[in-house]
Amino acid sequence: MSAQFVIDRENSTDNEIWDVPRRTFQWVVEFLACQVRDRDLAAALETFIEDGYAWLALTYYSESQAGEIVRVIRQELKPAVTEAFPLGEDDGTHEMVDELIEMAIRWSEADRRRLTEDETRGE
Fold first, then answer.
1. DSSP string computed for the chain
2. Per-residue pLDDT tens digits of the chain, which is 123 residues long
3. Are 40 and 51 spatial neighbours (Cβ–Cβ below 8 Å)?
């Protein structure tokens, strides 16, 4: 059974879907819940896990909370995966997480471009 994490933004069609085995998805969401700095976001992610959902989208959260999720994915996820799933002993988890990290990087780059464009237009 698979689960999906949608890397999306309000009013955008540049959405990406991370479709992975449910156990990988759940491990990542649990990790996010432990690492985000926003306690309300952590509680929401913990509830999400407890309720057994298999579909998560950044647009479920405020823009700042989505940014915090992306920050953790970009900066903290890879070392944690390396520790939890030693290379050579995993079932493709490293490759799946690398894919999610690349999606988060693209989300961040699009966010920076959007902010630069808004500044250029004087918004």
1. -EEEEEE--TT-S--EEEEEEHHHHHHHHHHHHHH-S-HHHHHHHHHHHHTT--EEEGGGS-HHHHHHHHHHHHHTHHHHHHHHS-TTSSSSHHHHHHHHHHHHHHHHHHHHHHHHHHHHHT-
2. 899 999 999 888 889 999 999 999 999 999 999 999 999 999 999 999 999 999 999 999 999 999 999 999 999 999 999 999 887 776 899 999 999 999 999 999 987 766 666 566 665
3. no
